[in-house]
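Here comes an entry:

___
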Amino acid sequence: MNPSRRSVLAMLGATGAVLTLPAKAQAVPARIPSGLRPEGEFDRFVKEQADQDAFSGSLLVINRGRTVLARSYGMADKAKSVPNGPDTLFALASVTKLFTAVAVAQLAQDGKVAYHGKLGTYLTGFPDDIAGKVTVHHLLTHTSGFGDLFTMPGYLEAAATWTSAQQAMDSTTDFVRTSTLSFAPGAGWQYSNAGYHLLGAIVQQVSGQSYYDYVRTNIFGKAGMTSSDFYTKPQWRADPRMAHPYGLQPSGGRTDGLEDRMFVGGPAGDAFSNCPDMARFAEALLGHELLNPEYTQITIGGKVPPSPNGPGRPPTGTMRRQAVFQAYGPQAVLINGQWNIGHSGGSFGEATDFQLYPDSRYVTVILSNYDYDRNLGMPPVFVKAQELIVSGGA
């Protein structure tokens, strides 16, 4: 028998936001503010960005399970003149971490993983002071002290030689085993690709399946995400449905960065999906098709305050941030009295954003094959969508 929600939260020692999710969205008519409708303020803003070649990609705004706005701009493959469309697949960058977090939650729900279980319980080969102190909770909340595996000496050079998904998974775990912690577990917050890779390795070890097969079956399959997968670079190169990543150069121009990408993504980033599939993921998560209500709450409820300079921070401006918490995967942000649950991602030629608004029942998915200047903050299209939803979209 599953423990009660109250007993589970007490066991976790969770702090911060505890969210009340609505029941699975029904097809109930709702007044959609003019700013979010076709030809409204957001629609016009995105078109202006695209006309200035500042946005390339697809977006989808949903309310109560119904499409409010769907748009695509730019090219998936400029060399072959393939346009982006509603079914174009984009590399998700760090939005992928949401799938890893839900996979861990499924195993926790089944009693196979404990949130305060030690890393050494699940994975071997780590020094005792790491194996016995880092917990699953620390890994999920970016408080483990592990850092960014992509900046580890020799990692990218080694990754360029890998030719299978399992080699990429296991070899990355070996690299993380050699790393040291930036601070004692629980003593700070540092966004950690290495930590999320280890969570995927735990999913693999505990489930007895490869990480990739587990996510395909238990996340993509259960949610009906029929086009989503961890596609390899050869598939990316050959499939016209998949958007090439066009990275910003110091000169201001953009270049296709596909050939410099790794063989395959992993638990920390670069699964592929499209807007309709991500909408299905939102419906499955909020509709408790992936997790029961208790574990859905545990996953998206805030736990610890992140660094104010961390990725995924809400945009500034007219919006008043009343609370910001790192949850188990997403960030939970209270803005203008409304909870915003989501994750963004970015890499060379990639900028992605997935946001849930349980109070008003909006879902926004914005997938772009253009990256952005991070010194300027979040991409303007991401900011505009959030501003209009939390302000009522007037």
The radius of gyration is 20 Å. Residues 1-29, 312-316 have pLDDT under 50 and may be disordered. The chain has one domain: 5-390. The CA atoms of residues 318 and 387 lie 8 Å apart.
